[in-house]
Amino acid sequence: MSEKDNAQSLVDHLTELRRRLVVVGVVFVAVLVAAFFVVDPIYHYVTKNAISGVAIELNAFSFWDGVGVYMKIAMLVALGITLPFTLYQVWAFVSPGLKAQERKATARYIPYVFVFFLAGLAFGYYVVFPLAMTFTGSLNKQLGLVETYGMADYFKFLTNIVLPISLLFELPLVILFLTQLRILNPLRLKKMRRAAYFALVVVSVMITPADFFSAFLVLVPLVLLYELSVFLSKRVYAKQQAADAERAEKYK
């Protein structure tokens, strides 16, 4: 292929990528607008004291606190809903370079993106967040502090815990997708196990309050997710090896 053909191919790929990014942006904005209709019930649900077990009264310390919180909730809803669509666009962009069997296999993962995201959201909100609120609240009382929380700080604290956990729950799907693309394999994942465990320990400490129990409670499912990823990657890799061997035998 000549340099001119290579340049034209690169331009075509970049044009296709830009088109898909524009489509993702349009869908995200449309979902963001629709999300404003569900912000109010979500806001009242996540500020219930029954979840955290800590009685708090939220305050606005600036005129824009309410607007900022509403925007943050709407953007999180839009992010969760458009995440599968975004990954579909990524798959559609790279699928021409995949074999028919690989395209079919990777396409099956896309619906599970939303499921795993919701699982991470539920774990972060119903398990980790109450522990964090209880820990910080008890420490403040021990120090004799008067707890006066701003609504913006409350939601920043909430999202800093829940959102990273939700995204980390996508780890098995990401590893499976990369295995299908032959970028990762179970042998490489096993070699990376120590480094991966260390990274998960750092993440669990960063997104939880400073007590061992909370960090351990987050670390356990993250480690299980990594091991699940290795197991699933092993199955996919074995199928790939069998298919390659069959193909080599056929065209020998």
Low-confidence stretches: none
What is the ordering of alpha helices and beta strands? Answer: HHHEHHHEHHHHH
As a percent range, the share of strand residues is under 5%
Major β-sheet profile:
2 strands, parallel
The level of helicity is over 70%
Termini separation: 27 Å
Can you describe what's shown?
By secondary structure, this protein is an all-alpha fold. It has helices at 3-35, 39-46, 49-52, 65-94, 100-107, 110-142, 151-168, 171-180, 186-191, 193-206, 212-250, and strands spanning 58-59, 149-150. The chain has a two-stranded parallel sheet.
Short recap of the structure:
The protein is mainly α and 252 residues long. Helices cover 81% and strands 2% of the residues. The longest helix is centred in the last third of the chain and has 39 residues.
Descriptive tags:
252 residues, mainly alpha, two-stranded parallel sheet, 11 helices, 81% helix, flat
Strand-helix topology:
Elements: H1 3-35, H2 39-46, H3 49-52, E1 58-59, H4 65-94, H5 100-107, H6 110-142, E2 149-150, H7 151-168, H8 171-180, H9 186-191, H10 193-206, H11 212-250
Parallel strand pairs: 1-2
Helix pairs in contact: 1-4, 4-6, 4-7, 6-7, 8-11, 10-11
